[in-house]
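Sample entry (489 residues):
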Amino acid sequence: MAKSVDFTAYDTESFYDEVFDSDGKPRPEAQLLVDSINQLPPGDLLRRQEAIDQAMMRMGITFAVYGDDQGTEKIWPFDIVPRIVGSKEWRTVEQGLKQRIRALNLFIDDIYHDQKILNDGVIPRALIENASSFREQCRGLNPPRGVWVHITGTDLIRHSDGQIYVLEDNLRCPSGVSYVLQNRLLMKRSFPQIFKACRVRPVIDYPSGLLQTLQSLAPNTNEPTIVVLTPGVYNSAYYEHSFLAQQMGVELVEGRDLVVKDGFVCMRTTEGFQRVDVIYRRIDDDFIDPKVFREDSALGVPGLMEAYRNGRVALANAPGTGIADDKVVYAFVPEMIKYYLGEEAILPNVQTYVCEVPEHRDYVLSHLDELVVKPANESGGYGMMIGTRASTEERKKFEELIRKNPRNYIAQPVLSLSRVPTLIDGVFEGRHVDLRPYILYGEDVKVLPGGLTRVALRKGSLVVNSSQGGGSKDTWVVADSDEELTGLD
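Predicted structure, serialized as tokens:
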């Protein structure tokens, strides 16, 4: 007999739930989804989940895990119950993200030019000049339109108080948007009637928006040649690199496919060299040009930075942007917003202790059992310690690391990440989530409605990264009844 799966026994416990309120009632924007799932015939939801899993396998939707003994390529874990965001709340998120990226862009431009924010003492100069992500080679660069950060993925979390906080900014080579698009495609096929009834805002136009953003950077040409520069097939995000290139209709290249010729960047083709105008680079700063950064890099293009500095090619994102997603610098973004825009931050930061500051460091060292400690430039959940779950030995290790190199660490309170019902072994259980919306900055700033909801599939886990057992969900931004829906997923 087929098993019935519904929400009747779902326990919201003591966490903020994105689908149900504290009384166990569906939130208004989620009511139709909950009713629709509850009314499915026995076994139907499980069959739909299995069909999506099989489609992921057929489509080769994968990610890579470095150092995994069972192989690097993994099928992207996906859960069928979406995260739903109401239209009013989304407007606030959208406004906050636009505000934040404008301030961060002004900060980066200032840091590599006049450094007014340092001269005025808003941010300690040493925190910037001693940052591993600060690139002295980028001083004086002038990107097209003065925009340094064209593609951003900003991580948001909701605490038990219901407030949405910015957890971190990803400004170098943010990944994950390909999974947003593929998640939506598979969910739309699985629940076409519910999509229409719920008035879910589309995400399908992201590749065209990305292409327009890149085209807006092109120097002196109406029909620019654009390429996506990848480190190659062994990179963890290679699937995304190839997917976005295909969706935009541009070439996917590696460093060996490009050469600087007569001061211009050219692509090797069967018909000879073709000039390249814009490079969407998915390679870190250190590897893009061995003449300027790491001499041993075989991934980049010798002479690329000179061509870029001379305005003969555009790069997205611009080199040097990593200074603004350093986790220590993150602590000062509200001050940046006030300094450059004269506004209060719409989306608050998580309370952050900067270990380089003596009084902050003293507090952190005496409260290691209560805090999350993070290194300034690691990603993917690596290198951090959750004090409430760490052993005495782990806390001792981090105490030594902080004392040895305080500039490299911040600490934050352990937050109770909100949850979304998740299909686990045939029943719904709450699992913690975050949200990564994507922002494009070309002629204007545009925010993709929704983003990548990452879910910690392990019971009780707060780590949502796919490399550490996390998965994803579709994110439904519900439009107002009078809001026109443009585009079709």
